[in-house]
Design a protein that fits this description.
Helices cover 75% and strands 1% of the residues. By secondary structure, the protein is mainly alpha-helical. α1 packs parallel to α3, α4 runs antiparallel to α6 and α6 packs antiparallel against α7. One of its GO terms (molecular function) is ABC-type transporter activity.
């Protein structure tokens, strides 16, 4: 698509720059601010970075992959290429876009907002933005494969993404969520991306929220219900595992679709042969 239509790449570049500048200007120098506003702005920009990349990547690839699915099944049936070659080539082409553009966006936002001036924390922040984008991309492919048509997938995707966003840890404290609903947070890539960023930013920092005495950043982590013992690297590994599982299910769904198409084709061929045989018998009888 990028080669046939370079406007896609140009629009993606423009989108990345514009959104990054808007977010950067909105939260400009929040890292150097004092008071509760600093904490609110830091958390807000990290949540936006996670949610925006998950949802935009999901909807973006869903629109492309969902539209190509019927073409793929037809060309696969004609023997042009196999499922593994198509799936691997599609992944190899798309993944770099899910790395380069989110990383560029994360870089612009990070320094405009003024998050911790630490190289390791910068790279960790960018890594989580990229992982959020890749996780959203994998979700989009999965949804495109399991739903029968693109309109159905586009209608169902927001319904699925909304609870995942609500259970991410920003809108509701994770410790106060009813027990019978808490399982939703564990399948939310937004939750693990946001939690990884929060723990990265609020670890090793002193914040002045109320009064003259500084508050350890870990207090902010605890107040959001994220003091669950889950390390930053564990959040990253969970996101990677989610990507692998989602792509695995997407591949299996495509394999099942191909098998059902083959079965239907064989059934139609058998029926046509039977009808042709009966017509020949009837013709021979008339003679």
């Amino acid at each position: 698509n990028a080669i046939r239509n370079p406007l896609i790449v140009k629009s993606r570049i423009a989108q990345t720059i514009v959104i990054s500048l808007i977010v950067g200007l909105l939260f400009l120098n929040s890292g150097s601010a004092v008071g509760q506003a600093s904490v609110q702005n830091r958390s807000g920009v990290m949540f936006f970075a996670t949610t925006n990349n998950v949802m935009s990547s999901c909807i973006g690839i869903l629109s492309i992959f969902g539209g190509e699915k019927s073409v793929f099944t037809r060309e696969h049936g004609a023997g042009y290429y196999s499922l593994p070659s198509y799936f691997l080539s599609k992944t190899a082409v798309e993944v770099p876009y899910q790395i380069v553009f989110p990383w560029a966006q994360a870089t612009i936002v990070y320094f405009m907002v003024g998050l911790q001036n630490n190289a390791a924390k910068y790279f960790i922040f960018c890594a989580f933005v990229v992982l959020a984008s890749v996780a959203g991309w994998a979700m989009g492919i999965f949804f495109a494969c399991i739903f029968p048509s693109l309109p159905v997938a586009l209608a169902a995707t927001p319904v699925i993404l909304m609870p995942l966003m609500l259970f991410s840890g920003l809108f509701a404290n994770l410790d106060t969520i009813p027990v019978w609903l808490r399982w939703i947070q564990y399948i939310s890539p937004i939750k693990y991306g946001f939690e990884g960023m929060v723990k990265n930013e609020y670890t090793g920092i002193q914040l002045y929220c109320q009064g003259p005495l500084p508050v350890d950043g870990k207090v902010c982590i605890a107040e959001q219900g994220m003091d669950d013992g889950l390390e930053i690297w564990a959040c990253a590994l969970i996101l990677i595992a989610m990507v692998v599982v989602l792509l695995g299910f997407a591949y299996a769904s495509l394999q099942r679709l191909i098998s059902s198409k083959k079965s239907s084709a064989v059934h139609r061929k058998t029926k046509q042969d039977r009808m042709a045989f009966m017509c020949r018998q009837k013709s021979d009888g008339n003679l």
